[in-house]
Amino acid sequence: MLLETNRLILREFKLDDINDFFEIFGDHEVMRDIEPAFNLDQSLEFLKGFCIEREPKGAFAAVLKESNKLIGYVLFNSVD
């Protein structure tokens, strides 16, 4: 899946996203109301298990076009 707007690209996650992913999930302020911030190993495990290997895909990477930087994710849920 690939969706593009003027500023964003929504695409499937890749292992190469780990540094930007960890920047988000390792941030204590971002994770304040969710759970403790992830360390690098936890971030990699979550990226692989939930964002890459999970079928059907539920999370997609939100990437800024101008910098190609991962800035977050979008969750989709199927509805019958």
Structure characteristics:
80 residues, alpha+beta, four-stranded antiparallel β-sheet, Aminopeptidase, 2 helices
If you had to describe this structure to a student in words, what would you say it looks like?
The chain is of the alpha+beta class. The chain has one domain (2-66): Aminopeptidase (3-Layer(aba) Sandwich), CATH 3.40.630.30. 26% of the residues lie in helices and 25% in strands. The chain has a 4-stranded antiparallel beta sheet. A hairpin with a 3-residue loop joins strand 1 and strand 2. Helix 1 (18-25) crosses helix 2. The radius of gyration is 13 Å and the shape is globular. The mean pLDDT is 93.
Secondary structure layout plus pairing:
Blueprint: E1 2-4, E2 8-11, H1 18-25, H2 40-52, E3 59-64, E4 69-75
Antiparallel strand pairs: 1-2, 2-3, 3-4
Helix pairs in contact: 1-2
